[in-house]
Specification:
mainly beta, single chain, 10-stranded mixed β-sheet, 5-stranded mixed β-sheet
Length: 253
């Protein structure tokens, strides 16, 4: 076992814990599955196909001491283990995974199987799944990303008619595997309007060829404020916030 310093964000306090160095045998690790240990947080991270996810970051936030946490990463088999018997405190566990895709780094939140807090002295098992899409477990949006657009509503062919965002349909055709290596599927979806603007929500991170139409009529398209309009764009997602990624487009008749 080695000491582990929890990384506190933006000036928060730090705590130290211990992390499994990998000396535990596979048989010992398997035997411990499903059996909580006093003073130990452990678990496993897998992807949507059940494959282990290595190098995921698991954060046990100490709810007694503000902005203080323990941090550990998963091993090649997706397992992690850290001592929480460091203070009379309650912990809540979250996780993220960071992967490079087409020369960009993307950080994505993991789906907890159980997000209940626990007493550090009691220990707990907290497993996670890396999902590319789906409604978040906390109800705050989706695990997928957003494709947003600005539509020039004036139609020179029909000057008395203005185009409606929600009558736009986007077609996204994957250009190779998605960020987790899985095969993507063509997405054809009507736009919806939300707090971030008009577009398509909950799209798995990948590279796409994107076309747009308004009530069956093709629209011209480009990346937001970039270059000339054409019949399609091929692009990937840009980071907007730490775990939020977007494609932003301009559309016009």
């Amino acid at each position: 076992m080695v000491a582990l310093s929890g990384c506190a964000s933006e000036g928060g306090e730090r705590m130290t814990g211990t992390v499994d160095t990998g000396r535990e045998t596979a048989a010992e690790r398997k035997a411990g599955v499903g059996q909580p240990e006093a003073g130990v947080l452990k678990g496993r991270v897998v992807d949507g196909a059940g494959r282990p996810v290595a190098d995921a970051e698991i954060v046990a936030d100490n709810q007694l001491i503000h902005n203080s946490n323990l941090v550990v990463t998963t091993d090649k088999d997706g397992h992690y283990r850290v001592s929480t018997d460091v203070a009379a405190a309650t912990f809540r566990v979250t996780g993220t995974v960071t992967r490079r895709f087409e020369d960009r780094a993307y950080t994505m939140e993991l789906t907890p199987h159980d997000d209940a807090s626990f007493a550090g002295s009691d220990g707990a098992i907290r497993d996670f799944t890396w999902r590319l899409t789906g409604e978040r477990s906390d109800g705050l949006g989706f695990y997928g990303s957003m494709v947003l657009f600005h539509l020039e509503s004036y139609d020179p062919q029909n000057p008395e008619t203005f185009l409606n965002d929600e009558d736009v349909t986007l077609t996204l055709t994957p250009q190779g595997p998605l960020i987790d290596g899985s095969a993507g599927e063509v997405i054809v979806r009507r736009a919806e309007r939300g707090g971030d603007g008009a577009g398509v929500l909950d799209v798995p991170i990948g590279r796409y060829r994107i076309t747009a139409e308004h009530l069956g009529r093709p629209l011209r398209i480009r990346l937001r404020d970039t270059g000339e309009y054409g019949e399609a764009v091929v692009t990937g997602f840009e980071r907007f916030l730490s775990t939020v990624h977007r494609i932003q487009l301009d559309l016009k008749p």
